[in-house]
Amino acid sequence: MTRAVPFDELTAAAAAVTTTFEDAPSGPVEVADPYSAHGFAVVALRGTPAGEDTLLTLSAALGLGEPFVPPLYRLGGGAAPTVSRISAASNAETADADHPSFGRTVGQEFHCDGTLQDIGFVKATVLLCELPAPEGGKSLLFNASAAFARLIAADPAAAVALATPGTLVRQANINGSSEQNAGPVFTVQDGRLVARYCVTDTDRWEVPAGVVEADLRRGIEFLRRAALPGSPDHLELTLGPGEAIVFDNTRLSHGRSAYRDSPDRRRCLYRSLHLAHPSGVTIPAAAGAR
Ligand SMILES: O=C(O)CCC(=O)C(=O)O
Ligand SMILES: [Fe+2]
């Protein structure tokens, strides 16, 4: 269970947040360097067809370690691949056909990956694009950690409410599971602010004991606005064929816009989850943090 963080620790971690979408490269880069500054990096793979093996090679090259497979995916005894295919067209006849993300063309609201895992557990996600949709299918990013750093300065009570364990309940909705995981939306781990802002259909807010509901509501509203298009903490990009994004699942939330396929262009992405950040990347922490 995630602990409640003392206010001074929360403030110090929030003050150490430097993640910004300002000056984020609009296209692919050679190395994953921007990950530290912006919380994500887009890389282009040349000469290799995009696919599961390519994603495994890329994630290994980034030092992300073996992909993590959520235990939920193995429920019912099915073998779960270490890489998930996200494609309504390719997954139409498979067990993933009804999965809201993997098997359908609908949009995805902002979330962090690892629904049932505790906040901060899944560190990084890689999405590799084999083929983009002819229409829609944009990747949406929300710099939740920067938004929180502003909130704690403007409205400390709202920020503390969001950092209280039990405010966000995430519910599984695949493989017949209704397991859930309750936690805070923000916490501090190793002096670093860690975020888990999720507003999909299967996420809900709760008012745990000791939290004033009005404080929590103001915090939720602040984040909702900060996540809207036009906010400095909102970024949209479309991955091209052979492009991959690696993002920090502990600083950013992500989503996608709905898409439409055409007969000769059917969107297909591959996704892996990781319990490490790319090697060589330093993420700022509060001074004096362990
Ligand atoms: O389809 C996408 O662009 C991302 C989907 C996603 O966020 C997920 O499957 O967790
Ligand atoms: Fe996701």
Write the layout of secondary structure elements.
Elements: H1 7-15, H2 34-38, E1 40-44, H3 52-61, E2 84-86, E3 108-111, E4 124-131, E5 135-136, E6 139-142, H4 144-154, H5 156-162, E7 168-171, E8 180-183, E9 186-189, E10 192-195, E11 203-205, H6 213-226, E12 234-237, E13 243-248, E14 253-256, E15 259-260, E16 268-274
Antiparallel strand pairs: 1-13, 2-16, 3-14, 4-13, 4-16, 5-15, 6-12, 6-14, 7-8, 7-11, 9-10
Helix pairs in contact: 4-5, 4-6, 5-6
The structure holds 2-oxoglutaric acid (AKG) and fe (ii) ion (FE2).
Structure description:
This protein is α+β, with helices and mostly antiparallel strands and 290 residues long. It has helices at 7-15, 34-38, 52-61, 144-154, 156-162, 213-226; strands at residues 40-44, 84-86, 108-111, 124-131, 135-136, 139-142, 168-171, 180-183, 186-189, 192-195, 203-205, 234-237, 243-248, 253-256, 259-260, 268-274. The strands form 5 sheets. Strands 1-13-4-16-2 form a 5-stranded antiparallel sheet. Strands 3-14-6-12 form a 4-stranded antiparallel sheet, with no helix packed on it. Strands 8-7-11 form a 3-stranded antiparallel sheet, with no helix packed on it. The longest helix has 14 residues, at 213-226. The protein is globular, with a radius of gyration of 18 Å. It starts with 6 loop residues before the first helix and ends in a 16-residue tail after the last strand. 43% of the residues are buried. The model has no long low-confidence stretch (mean pLDDT 92). The structure holds 2-oxoglutaric acid (AKG) and fe (ii) ion (FE2). 2-oxoglutaric acid binds at residues 86, 101, 108, 113, 127, 139, 254, 256, 269, 271.
